[in-house]
Design a protein that fits this description.
The chain is of the alpha+beta class and about 130 residues long. The protein has a single domain, classed as START domain (Alpha-D-Glucose-1,6-Bisphosphate, Chain A, domain 4, 2-Layer Sandwich), CATH 3.30.530.20. It is about 25% helix and about 40% strand. A hairpin with a 2-residue loop joins strand 5 and strand 6. The longest helix is centred in the last third of the chain and has 14 residues. The protein is globular.
Length: about 130
């Protein structure tokens, strides 16, 4: 999906872990302290009651890879950023495993596209809470 912003602006949002709940409603809270760091577990709360952790596995100018773990579900995701003359093409993909992932699979089929759409809304409206 095309986002009318430079990759650096998009990276800043993706790496601001504590602010993820402002545009990704699956997160109730992210207890990040300081900038995102590869390999450092960050406590998260998902859907208000599921506690777990998120780890940035890889951070570069063109890709971010993360792993999120909550009881019954592990998600490994990537965000690929390709800068083009009029903005950035953003591709998000993820895989989920675990018992909870199997139960939720029908409702998560379009989540990658929805996350990119919310990211685009975040760029367009930086002070709004996106739901």
């Amino acid at each position: 999906m095309h986002i009318d912003a430079p990759a650096s602006d998009i990276l800043a949002i993706l790496l601001a872990a504590a602010a993820l709940p402002e545009w990704n409603p699956a997160f109730s809270s992210v207890s990040a302290k300081g900038p995102a760091t590869v390999g450092r577990p960050t406590p998260i709360r998902v859907r208000g009651f599921l506690r777990g952790e998120m780890v940035y596995d890889r951070i570069s100018d063109s890709e971010i890879a993360t792993t999120m773990r909550i009881p019954g579900l592990t998600e490994r995701g990537t965000w690929q950023l390709t800068e083009i003359p009029a903005g950035t093409t953003v591709t998000h993909a993820f895989t989920q495993s675990g018992v909870l992932a199997e139960l939720l699979e029908p409702s998560t089929r379009d989540v990658a596209g929805l996350r990119v759409h919310r990211l685009r809304e975040r760029i367009a409206h930086p002070r709004a809470v996106i739901s």
